[in-house]
Amino acid sequence: MTVKINQDINTVVKSLKANHFDIVEFVKDADSVVKAVLDIIPFEAKVDIGGSMTLRQIGLRDMLTGRGIKVIGVPGYETNNSGEQGDILLSSSNAVTLDGKLVNVDGVGNRVAKMVFGPKKVILIIGQNKIVSNVDEATDRIKNVIAPYHGMNLGRTVGLKIPCAADGRCHDCKSPQRICNITTIIHRKPVMTEYVIFIVGQDLGLGWDPHWPEVRKKRISSAYLAAWQKEMASLPPPPSK
Ligand code: SF4
Q1: 20 is a domain residue
Q2: Does residue 176 sit within a domain?
Q3: What is the pLDDT of residue 1?
Q4: What global pTM score does this model have?
Q5: Structure confidence by residue, pLDDT tens digits, 87-120
Q6: Ligand 1, atom 6: nearest CA belongs to which residue?
Q7: For a pocket test of ligand 1, which of 143, 152, 153 has the largest count of ligand atoms closer than 8 A to its C-beta?
Q8: Of all atoms in ligand 1, which is nearest to the CA of residue 178?
Q9: What residues contact residue 179 under an 8 Å CB cut-off, 6+ apart?
Q10: CATH number at residue 219
């Protein structure tokens, strides 16, 4: 079967390559990206997982541990600062721009810090729904789609209270529970880190353009909620400090 790569995906792949990210590949779907990632992670690797709904959705953590590969951090508590450092970071990106910039927002900063410096290799899995025109659109989408939806879900499940969860709009709040404290824009490949980026021809993780058809947005949000509920149901008690 011939896979059609739409124009935006083609543009993003070319731009990321032009921005010196080492390996940038299009893969058609979740199954293909799982296979591609498993093929490049050695059995002896120590893998760090940045909190990512994309990874939860495609079940990579379980597959890695099933192979006996060491995964750092406890499911659901990836933000814990165990002090242990992986040699590979596996994550996604909140957004990728057409000119090949990676835009991310974190509350804690563990994920974005490791994307910039720390693990020798970073592997990112980015669904087609994360492609945006530019940094302004990325920021707008993160603040007015991703954070409110995620905040609403965290409100329901763990009692988090942030104003955007109530009305779906960012208020640049001063809440101590604010989930967007650090923004990173990776313009070009960080000098000392090897990067492998898979752009997937399937919607994965949280994020959509508000103008997309309701059916597509519903599919993305339902997949996100299903992955979240599955993870919440399987959580061990919080690790002791
Ligand atoms: S700054 Fe506050 S209101 Fe705005 S997106 Fe972040 S948590 Fe929500």
Answers
A1: yes
A2: no
A3: 44
A4: 0.93
A5: 999 999 999 999 999 999 999 898 999 999 999 9
A6: 180
A7: 143
A8: 7
A9: 107, 147, 150, 151, 154, 160, 162
A10: 3.40.50
